[in-house]
Amino acid sequence: MHRRQFLGGGGALSTPDRFLSRDACEALLERVVRLCPSGWEVSLYIYSRWSGNVRWARNEITTAGDITEPQVTITARHRNRTAQFQINRLDDASIQRAIVQLQRRLDMQRPNNEPGRMRAGEVYEVTDLWSDATYELDAAQRAAIQERLVAPALAEGLLSAGYIQVSAIGHGVVNTSGLFAYEPETRAQCSVTVRNPSGTGSGWAGVAHKDWSQIDAERLAAIALDKCKRSADPVAIEPGRYTVILEPQAVSDLMMPLIRSLDRAQAEMGIGPWADRPQEAVSANLIVGDPSAFEAGPGVGEAGGAGNSKIGQLVLDPRITISADPSDPEAPFVPFAPDGSPYRPVKWIENGVLRELSYHRPYANQILNKPDPLLNSGSFRMSGGNTSIEEMIARTERGLLVTRLVNVRLVDLNSLLCTGTTADGLWLIERGEITRPVKNFRFRESPLYAFNSLEALGEPVRVLQPMPVIVPPALVHDFSMTSLADAV
Q1: Which residues of the chain have pLDDT under 50?
Q2: Burial 403-418 (b: 16+ CB within 10 A, else e)
């Protein structure tokens, strides 16, 4: 395991003015401290981002451009009071106005029981987040790619829409106690939708990666075109429980509410899917995430214990492991949070067993007697198998092939019951073959139920989500399709 320590200023990253360099972050802290009242402890979270994009619809570019924007969150601490203020202009006048607001907020705060000083140093995972191919993809190149992606749809009288975006981001956390963390990152994403003029067929494909050279945009366009043609003129079939083959994008869409729910404080309070005794740990009127709520609450574990949570229990099919690692070569992410807390490699679920739930530093310090938090970045990798989608289709007597799920919303936190609709390609499978396209369904299902009804998994791949996500296709049974959806 490789880690690096940030205890002070380091070497400069030479960058143009698209985002703030390492030296620029250090100089910004010096300016803010100079303008602040004496005695303040100050921390900055610096998110300076350049992005270039091209968006098109009905085969024509609708918007394109380059955006440069810094976002700086200033945290001030004085006499056991803490306040924050965010700015996106970095001139002295804007910083001074922010300081006035910080002073007002500090004056309204009551002293808290957090540790007296900001952290002076952290040890982070070593990550590789940069791609020159992404950074160098300029507006002319993006426009040329769009023209190539649209051409096949044009040739067949179909309508292409899509989005290409490349970004470079400077992430920095610096404070007056000596912490200096800096990480440059690139991101690239491409998605293509193709529809027929009558609006009866739609296909989609998309992916995200740090490295544009790893994205085969022409292949995405070809997949979307093929799905559009094969999904044309769908027929309505009855709602009900179906065996479904979820393509990787659909798996990630259904898994996101589960990933967001991995919260230990909630579980200890008897709230959410990971509470072992719902609503028994602490009275329901306590604030989730408030460490003082746990000082005398029953059910909270001893240092490092599982308390009222389901940690150690089987919660998913034993073939499923869900993990996250900032240094994952296929899905890396920035190894620190906006407050400078580290992201650590973690297995949330291992062979179906819940192993960890996330918690912040106050909870770690006051409840678990641990020095560091265990944070959830939203990025994850899900284990897979060796069954291809074609093999899944061949073994399905009657079921559905699902491209993706959209407008996914949580209905019930305790069961993670979700609703949403299928989109951009849904097909009926009969006796091991795709027989016809069918109209989209609204579904009502929980990832806990679906991935305890697992029949097979395929090879994990990167998908299109805000954070790096790697998931497999999955074959599950008894998936609840509740009603027809009037959408393609």
Answers
A1: 1-2, 5-15, 281-305
A2: bbbbebebeeeeebbb
